[in-house]
Structures are given as structure tokens and as C-alpha cells.
Amino acid sequence: MRPDTPAENVDHTAEAARLERTAGLYPEDAEALLLRAAAHLELSGDHPEATTLYDRLLSSTDTLDNPHLVRALKASNLWEYGHEAEARAIIDGVRAASPTDPAPWVIVAEALESHDELEAAHDTFSEAVRHLLTDVPQPPQPTHPLLFGRHRVRRMLGESHDEWDALADSVHSLPVSLDELHDPKRVWSLGSENPAELEAEILRLRAELGAYREALSRPFPVAILHWPATELSELLEAYPTLATEYPSHDDHLATIESALRELAASGTPNLGIVTGTVPSYEAFAASELSSPSDATLLPQYATTLAARGRAVAWPPQQESACWCGSNRPYAQCHGSLTA
């Protein structure tokens, strides 16, 4: 699917089948590809077939990168077509496992919320926030949906603000406040005949839509290819003509950072970095019936890795490990370079 394909024009069943075929070609990326395939099946309304893909992943002999995420998605999907008891059991298991990734928490909490289990959703959001954000000076961006979800549910329950709600307000960047976005009574204004009230509600809905769009990750980020030092040495030893592209590893890393900063300054959204390996690159070159020494393949290889879900968003959080693999905080590594 092209990244500019309008959502209403997507054949979700066909896209799921294409992703399944791609997973067979790239088994190292099967988890990410099959999760995307299952999402398309859910959008098509074929919830049982989506469950089949989740079960396929969970029964695989390969180690999953994020088994809690797969279980959370399976639980949410099961509940959509009547398997409430099994969904609840899986949700209890995810909560008991206390994953360190925010995504499974968000999915199970929102599943409870969407089925009017507001107290349970509130408890799940709160448990996740305490587990992931206690004594954390600045909440990382992936945890923001937990704060926003908890704030939303608390508004629905009529709870007063607490310290976590204040933190949610502090990381919220849209012009319409969270209190307005999450006001349980604002939906009634849609029935008003007052043009001013309707216009105000349209502005709120636009802001909320903007928040959802900002949270979504596009399937094909603008990604730049990164070679770890050992891989670059192996690449240049096998294909010395590529040395014109990569004079040194330090230059390579500096070029990546400067290129991404230029793209960001020009307004290009959704930037990322993909990490290459020589065997993967050679396999890609073979699939293109070309030689790995052909430098024009490099950007195509980067795009292919991004399409397979291998891109890591840039820039990292300042306190997170730098993208270059140095294990130093980004702020003290490439994030400290003069733009």
C-alpha cells in the first residue's frame, strides 16, 4: 500500500494477504508484518482471521520482540466478536506481566474503556502510569497516550484532577485543553441549534482528530540508512567502490544526523533511521537483479527496510540511547552536535 493511498480506497483483505506473503519472504520481520496484516483484517471486519494471525505469532517457535503487545491486540480483537471471557483473561495476564512497553497497557485499557468498563480502564491506566512513570523526570513520548487515556477516563468518571492529570496537561501540546477534549458533556452540543456552539465543537473535534493523526505512525517514514561500524567495514571490504559513499564510519554517522536535521528544518515529517546488514543488503540486491556495489541501490534498500517496519523514529528522546548504538544518551552524543 502506498503511503498516500486514501484510507477509504484500501482493500484491507488484499493488503493483509500481501503482508502475509511479504512475511514469508522476510521471516526476520514476520512479527511486524503479521501484526499489520491482522490490523487490516480487523478493519475489514474479519476478526476471526485476525485472531488466527495473533495465534500464529504466539505459537511460533521464534522469540517475539513484544509478546505482550500481541496478546493485548488479540484480547482487544476477541472482545469485538463476542469472546469477552477470553479477552478478560488475557487482559488480566497482560496486567499481571507488567510490561515495560506502554503499547500493551494502552491497548488493554482502551479495550476496557470501549466496552464501558470505565473503572477497570481507570485502574489499568493508573497501574501503567505508576509502573512506567514513577520517578521519571520527563515522560517519554510513547507514554503520553497512557496519561491522556487516564485523564479521559477520569473525566468520564467525574474524578477531580490529580498529579498525573497535571502531568498529562503539561505534555499536551494542542490548543484545545484536555479538559475540553475529554468533557463527557460536550457531545450534547452536537445537538444544539446555536451556530456558535456548533462551530466551537467542530474546532474541538478538529483538534482531537489532530491528536489522533499525530499519534499514528505512517507505514513508510522518510528513513536514512545507518551502518554499524562492523557492518560498514564488512560492506567496504566486499564492495570497495562504495567507499566513495562512506569515507569513514564517523563521517557516515555525522552525515546521517546532519541530513535528518536538514530534513526536519525543511518541514519533512515522520523521519526515521533504518539499520542495514550486509547479508540483508546482498539479498535485496539479488532481488533487484543488481550488484551490491551499485550505490543507487542504497536509498532503495533504506526504503524497503522502512516499508518492512524496521525504521526507528528520529530524533530520540534526549535522555534515550543515541540511535548510533553508542549507548550514550542522545543529548550527550549526536544530539549534542551543532546543527
Instruction: Give me the side-by-side strand order of the main sheet.
Output: 1-2-3
Largest sheet: 3 strands, mixed
Helix content: 55-70%
Instruction: Report low-confidence residues grouped into runs of 5 or more.
Output: 1-7, 215-219
Strand fraction: under 5%
Question: What would you call the structural class?
Answer: mainly alpha
**Radius of gyration over C-alpha positions, nearest whole angstrom:** 22 Å
User: In total, how many beta strands?
Assistant: 3
Mean pLDDT: 85
Overall spatial form:
globular
**Which H/E pattern describes the elements?**
HHHHHHHHHHHEHHEHHE
Multimeric state? single chain
What is the terminal separation in angstroms?
A: 35 Å
Helix count equals 15
Describe this structure in words.
This is SEC-C domain-containing protein. InterPro entries: SEC_C_motif (IPR004027), TPR-like_helical_dom_sf (IPR011990). Pfam families: SEC-C (PF02810). The protein is mainly alpha-helical and 339 residues long. The protein is built from 15 helices and 3 strands. It has helices at residues 12-25, 30-44, 47-58, 67-80, 84-97, 102-114, 118-133, 144-157, 163-171, 178-181, 195-215, 229-238, 249-265, 278-287, 297-307; strands at residues 222-226, 271-275, 312-313. The chain has a 3-stranded mixed sheet with strand order 1-2-3, with helices on both faces. α3 (47-58) runs antiparallel to α4, α4 packs parallel to α6 (102-114) and α8 packs across α9. The longest helix is centred in the middle third of the chain and has 21 residues, at 195-215. The two termini are 35 Å apart.
